[in-house]
Amino acid sequence: MLGNILGSVASSVLGGGEGQNKAMQLIQNLLQSQGGIEGLMQKFQQGGLEQLVKSWIGTGENLPISVSQVLDIFGKSNVDNAAQEAGIPQEEAPNLLAEYLPKIVDTLSPNGEFDLKNLDTSALLQQGAKAVLGKLF
User: Fold this and answer.
1) What pLDDT, on a 0 to 100 scale, did the predictor assign at position 114?
2) Of 2, 95, 108, 109, whose CA is between 20 and 30 Å from 58?
3) Alpha-carbon distances, residue 84 vs 79, 128, 137 (angstroms)
4) Which parts of the chain register pLDDT below 50?
């Protein structure tokens, strides 16, 4: 069901293009290297920023994340590696993550929670990224 919802959202806003694919690849690379959504949640808990992720998952307003918080949570080398794999300049990657990671996590949790038992993280992340980034590029 969640996959159908995200598929519909992605279909309605997809714009395509190389820029969109690179930004989506950046986020996907980083999350996969960090253990997916569960790993993301653990990183934010360990970094004392659990409230940020909870705001993105919940049904209320998403709290912003700063570039410095992105780098603190994931580490500059991990962000740089994900950017290099995606073909994005390393100096742009933290800004893209700060802007779009909250929106993507929010899109992946439309009812205020993840169904982690039935979650195909890679497929849903790709659909969520397309839904969020589709109008950007």
Assistant:
1) 67
2) 95
3) 9, 22, 19
4) 1-16, 135-137
Q: In which residue are the tokens 């995606």 written?
A: 86
CA distances from 98 to 37, 67, 72 (A): 16, 6, 12
CB 102 within 8 A of CB 63: yes
* pLDDT given for residue 125 in this prediction: 56
44-79 pLDDT, tens digit per residue, is: 999 999 999 889 888 889 999 999 999 999 999 999
Within 13 Å and on the Cβ side, how many CA atoms surround 15? 12
